[in-house]
Structures are given as C-alpha cells and as structure tokens.
Amino acid sequence: MSQDNNSTNDQIESYTPPKIWTQDKENGGKFASINSPTAGARQDKALPVGDAPLQLYSLNTPNGVKINILLEELAELDIKEAAYNAYLIDISKGDQFGSGFVAINPNSKIPALVDHSPSEAGEPLAIFESGAILMYLAEKFGKFIPMQQGKARVECLSWLMWQMGSAPFLGGGFGHFYAYAPEPMEYPINRYAMEVKRQLDVLDRHLKDNTYMGGDEESDYNIADMIIWAWYGQLALGKLYDAAEFLQVDEYQHLQRWAKKIAERPAVKRAVDLVLEPIA
C-alpha cells in the first residue's frame, strides 16, 4: 500500500464527527458539483411531451436501463399502448433538478415515467422509483409479472425488492468508492467489495437451479430478471466500474450464463443503447 493511502486511512481513523453536521466544504468526487443536502427544484425547466402514451425521462445508467428493457420487451410484443417517447435527463448537468422533473419525481432521481393514457382521474399519472415503474407497467399490460397470487408472484416480487434493497450497496457503496471518490480508501472499498461479492454469490447459488430468476421456462422471464440484470448482469459482463477483474466476476458461472443469455435478447440489446432525446 502506498504512503498516500496510509495517510488517507490514518485520517479516516482519526476523524471525529461533530455534534451537528454542516456542509462546510465540497465532498469531492465526480458528482460533487451537484450534490446538496436539500431537495427541490433549482431551475425552471419544463419537460417535453411527445405523442406516445408513455413519456420516459431517464438516463442509460443501470437504473434507467431497467425501464428501457421492459419498454422494449413490450415493443417486441407489438403492444401499441406501450409506445413511448424517451428523453435524456443529464444528471451531470443537473437536469434532474429542473422544475418539470421535480414535479414528477420529488426525489430528483432517474428514471421517471408519465402515463398519458386516459385514467379514472382524467389526468396523467407520474411514477417514480424504478421498481414502482416496472410493477406499474407490467401489471398495466399483464406481461412479465405473474398476475395471480401464489408462489410465482411472490418470488418475482421478492427478487424485485431484493434488487431495490441490494443495489445501493453496489452503486452508491462499491461503485462510488471504487470509481468516483476523490481518492481510493481501503476501508470502504473492502467493505463494499465484500458485500457485492456476497450478493453475487446469492445470485449464483439461486441461478444454479434456475434458468431465470423465477424458473426454467421462457414464460418465467419477468421483471425480476430485468431489474437485476441491469445492475448485476452488466457487472458480471464487465460493463460496470471497470471492476470485473477486481471482483473476479468470472467465478460466478451460473450468474455468467444467465447474464449472457439475457444480454442476447433483442429487446435488451436495444435497451442498453437506447437513444434518448435531449431536453431543451
């Protein structure tokens, strides 16, 4: 370990948190310029609205790719009511803090979706949080989610929620400290690498006995696969954080088989490279 890393770790160990936290300096890292402890709009910026029933406002990060996959899988089934326009929310430029986006997602995170199809309330429906969007669309069209109460539905929703609870340790934990922090720090990288490898092992053990997250039949492919693949499938294929060798992702053979199988789906191929129209 370099002297610089030793010095950094000594500083971390000796840090004593104040009684009251204040933002008295930038936190550094790739997204330092947009990070803030407050919510709400920072600029007036309306969102464009296209002609399709569904309006997607997103970015092709793992969280955004989740929704891209489902929308493209619905397009593969030629469901006209699932047609959509897709717009780019450039988080590096602060588009997520525009007044129009905050109005549909007060948490200012991508993705967000607005359904302009007629509703009982007679007004568009705004949905945020990727898991909620996937459930909404899958249930609206009766595709890629078991609709009847029972084992298949329970397993689908359980794995869906597993991803929502686990991925922050991968993205906000490992990804941040490994790829985006101002400088490498041994403790957080080791801590989150250990947790990510545990999660990869969870998936590998499950996929040893399952072709998809919910079973072996083609009909078992559902939103649990989509939401998990966007993060863990891409990680296993070396698409995230340039960390494949560091995490030894090739060790997880069953996860690799599943990740490669889903990556070959035409809808998934389109989803990862989806063209998003910039907002004015």
Automatic annotation (TrEMBL):
It comes from the Bacteria. PROSITE patterns: GST_CTER, GST_NTER. Residues 52-145 form the GST N-terminal domain. It comes from Psychrobacter cryohalolentis (strain ATCC BAA-1226 / DSM 17306 / VKM B-2378 / K5). This is Glutathione S-transferase-like protein. Signal peptide: none annotated. Residues 152-280 form the GST C-terminal domain. Residues 1-44 are annotated as: Disordered. Residues 1-14 have a biased composition (Polar residues). PANTHER family: DISULFIDE-BOND OXIDOREDUCTASE YGHU, GLUTATHIONE S-TRANSFERASE-RELATED. Belongs to the GST superfamily. Pfam families: GST_C, GST_N.
